[in-house]
Design brief:
The structure is a homodimer of 343-residue chains.
Chain A lengths: L1 E5 L8 H13 L4 E6 L1 H8 L9 E5 L10 H7 L4 H11 L3 E6 L3 H12 L9 E2 L2 E3 L5 E5 L9 H19 L5 E6 L9 H11 L4 E7 L10 E3 L2 H27 L2 H9 L1 H11 L7 E4 L4 E4 L6 H16 L2 H22 L1
Parallel strand pairs in A: 1-2, 1-4, 2-3, 4-12, 7-10, 8-9, 8-10
Antiparallel strand pairs in A: 5-11, 6-7, 11-12
Helix pairs in contact in A: 1-11, 3-5, 4-5, 6-7, 6-12
């Protein structure tokens, strides 16, 4: 299996990207990785690892896209960047099944929209991160920011893709799919929710109704469907609130000697909480609905996250998940079209 | 000063509502409170307090609106409910300057829209809760759910009202107003953000640009402007994530004896964190832009929150805040209209 990795995307690139690739090459004997970036630097880094170098191909690039750049200008302008070259390899080489990048989300998504295109029948691809839940489970949020203004048909496709992803990746028989809303009652929400709710009810998924943002991490849902704007707010508000609480707690502990002693006793519990909340360990967010497999790894990814992202590509490919999604979208195309016409 | 209080709204009504009113009557010698609800029950509860009963008027009502009811049906159908009668008193009696209710948010907002109406020039009133920030400050979110599908002009009015509120209530010279978005860059966001951003830039407020949801509680902003749907997601996702983290931490402490000992040492710090995050202590959320002062107290309000909500009415009234907002809306009406025409 061949995978392409953006060697110079993310805060900890290229060191941690190379380390992640090395871990993957060691773990999977049938894996072949193409990595883009400065050849000399990459070769130097790979020399630190005792791995089968014949399964690594370095494609030399001279540019890097950074976070502050306009995604469209960066993709158009930096044709020899590690990301654009990686996207071209994914697009053009039939034997390459997927891409992993920890680069700027905007650039990765824009590049994917421009170069990779959509799966047949999918109205819009969507970025779908996994978050940890209260009961040590996980919930998939789709979309978290790839599409700013979504239509009901887009949300139907998000629901179908999200459900198929959770079913196949985690063996969940009947993933519970919810619609992000301001309350759980059927008629709550904005115009988009009003139009989408009855459509979701008629799809061949386990649609369990509306979800309030406060229940996102409750463990009651497997898939949360949302337009990209609200989904982004949901994701980042959750992350921000957790960081805020952690920082307040830290300050209040530091302000008291007794508490600092107490914190020493609690070290293991704090560590366990941190591990539970660390969703980067699971790899990145799949860009579901794109023509080929694309995993956006977190910008601050370390080697274990890169390895996990590569493993996501492997699992999606081995499970033929994209074929399954494409088939389901095709099977429900009539339903979707009829539902929307009848409105 | 005369205020009307919904005696039977909220999880802890009527006991905690009566206690809150009693505290207010004791604290403010010129306060007169009209309270709606079952007369016998309310009289019995007030008998527990040694206060000047001549400044309390009980208006007997026979119905109660509960959380699960459809707001519109409840307001239309339950004409003798404590909330509807309180709204009618606010509407009809000129000497009554404000209302406090801890009842169902939907019913309170619907009732306010139907019975109280808008301040002159305001396109839509909005619900504006205060949240605690990392640096022990506070941030106002406007709107958190009164308007599901908002227009750019609505968000302009939210910004003007929110800025005036923070300036007058907390003596903030130049409140920093931000627009909720998916990133800080000027051109980020959905169509509503694209249209609203340039309008906010031209208003006589300290508009500091777009805000990512993760920075909501960072203390960098005084007012966060949003459509009601995304604002609701922002508020509830923040609350939910904090509750989730607290519950995970609790479980991980309980799972280890050492940690439980450590937690005893940290009691004071945990208490301090809880106090910092407890925004109910500040009272309820003003429904800014309504014709008269209306404070929606949290559904689980205890007496101190009810007292704080009553104090909000007193301060808004004494500061003539609503006159100031009305004046500013009038002064900017030309700007707003021209900005929207020119688009």
């Amino acid at each position: 299996m061949k995978i392409v990795v953006d060697g110079f995307g993310g805060d900890n690139s290229p060191d941690e990207i190379v380390k992640g690739v090395a871990l993957a090459i060691k773990k999977y004997s049938d894996l072949y990785v193409i990595i883009t970036g400065d050849k000399d630097k990459l070769e130097e880094l790979f020399d630190n690892y005792d791995i089968d170098k014949s399964r690594i191909e370095i494609v030399h690039t001279t540019e890097i896209i950074i976070n502050d750049e306009s995604p469209t200008e960066a993709i158009r302008g930096k044709k020899d960047s590690s990301l654009v070259v990686a996207l071209n390899i994914l697009k053009e080489r039939e034997d390459v099944c997927g891409l992993v990048s920890a680069g700027s989300t905007g650039a990765v998504l824009t590049g994917a929209f421009m170069k990779i295109g959509r799966m047949k029948g999918v109205s819009r691809p969507a970025l779908a991160p996994l978050l940890p839940t209260k009961n040590k489970g996980r919930v998939l949020l789709i979309d978290c920011g790839a599409n700013m203004d979504s239509k009901p048909i887009n949300l139907c496709h998000f629901a179908l893709m999200g459900s198929a992803y959770m079913k196949n990746m985690f063996n969940i028989e009947n993933p519970r799919v919810a619609l992000l809303n301001v309350g759980v009652e059927d008629k709550k929400g904005n115009e988009l929710c009003h139009q989408t709710f009855p459509l979701l009810k008629q799809l061949p998924i386990n649609f369990v109704g509306n979800m309030e943002a406060r229940d996102f991490l409750s463990g009651k849902y497997d898939v949360v469907v949302s337009d990209g704007f609200s989904g982004n707010v949901l994701l980042k508000a959750s992350e921000g609130a957790i960081q805020t609480l952690m920082s307040i707690l830290k300050n209040e502990i530091k302000a008291r000697k007794m508490s600092m002693i107490g914190a020493l006793f609690m070290k293991k519990s704090f560590k366990a909480v941190k591990k539970l909340m660390d969703y980067e360990q699971w790899g990145g967010s799949p860009f579901l609905g794109a023509k080929k497999i694309l995993i956006k790894s977190h910008g601050s990814s370390f080697a274990p996250s890169i390895l996990a992202s590569i493993e996501q590509v492997i699992q999606i490919n081995n499970d033929k998940l994209y074929d399954k999604i494409e088939k389901q979208i095709e099977e429900t195309q009539d339903i979707c079209e009829k539902l929307i016409e009848n409105k």
